[in-house]
Amino acid sequence: MRVLVAEDERMLADSVTEGLRHLGMAVDVCYDGDAALERVAVHRYDVVLLDRDLPLVHGDEICRRIVGDGGETRVLMLTAAAGIRDRVEGLGLGADDYLTKPFAFAELVARVHALARRSRPSLPPVLHSAGVELDPAKRFASRDGRPLSLSPKEFAVLEVLLRAEGRVVSPEELLEKAWDEHADPFTNTVRMTVMTLRKKLGPPPVVHTVPGAGYRLAT
After folding, report:
1. In this entry, which stretches build a coiled coil (predicted)?
2. Most distant pair of Cα atoms in the chain: their distance
3. Radius of gyration for the chain, computed over Cα atoms and rounded to the nearest angstrom
4. Alpha-carbon dihedral of residues 52, 74, 39, 32, nearest 10 degrees?
5. pLDDT value at position 122?
6. Alpha carbon distance 100, 103 (integer Å)
7. In the predicted structure, residue 187 carries a pLDDT above the cut 60
């Protein structure tokens, strides 16, 4: 899952970013509206956590731009204003959800997962293929009933492959969906992560390399 955190309270933004990364999400962060517009113009995000009161460019304008592009990005608007009128205005701009500060991190994560499901074609909440089971909400993965101890990136890669439903996934797509904007596309980080994931999944192999194209999961 690719997420943008656009929040000018740096301590809050950095805390949310690290928490979401710990859960295996690819998270970019910015602290003003100009930077937020630059990010959404370059990257395809599943969810944008958008502070309504961003400096330089107001969050309302950023929301309008995202909605106007007609893509599948979902907007979770964050604000300190708790009034019903404020919530109605935010949702009226096209935001998909609204969360008032201060908020519980667990609730934020639940809302992000719910919005991400809406940004993709409908899939079951627990993913299955070739004896592999993955529950993104519970952060649980297993193979043939055996629990898997996966790193956040291994978990994210496995989720992308499962959601592809047998389609070949390129290394570039894995970088886009499982790593943040600081990932170096010229390193072998994807190959090494897939290699360690294969070891943890065990035999027989279920993650197959398609030469010159990428990887696919057995179905």
Report:
1. none
2. 57
3. 18
4. 10
5. 45
6. 6
7. yes
pTM: 0.63
The position carrying tokens 């065990």 is: 202
Higher pLDDT, 5 or 129: 5
Question: Among 211, 200, 109, 209, which Cα is nearest to 161's?
Answer: 209
Q: How many residues can be counted in the chain?
A: 219
Cβ atoms of residues 3 and 20 within 8 Å: yes
Q: What is the mean pLDDT of the chain?
A: 86
Structure tokens that stand for 214 in this block: 């990428």
Q: What percent of the chain has pLDDT over 70?
A: 88
In whole angstroms, give the CA distance from residue 126 to residue 138.
Answer: 9
Comparing CA positions, the residue from 6, 18, 14, 5 lying closest to residue 152 is 18
pLDDT of residue 13: 95
What pLDDT shows up at residue 158?
93
Q: 62-112, pLDDT tens digit by residue?
A: 998 888 887 789 999 998 766 666 656 656 667 888 888 889 999 999 999
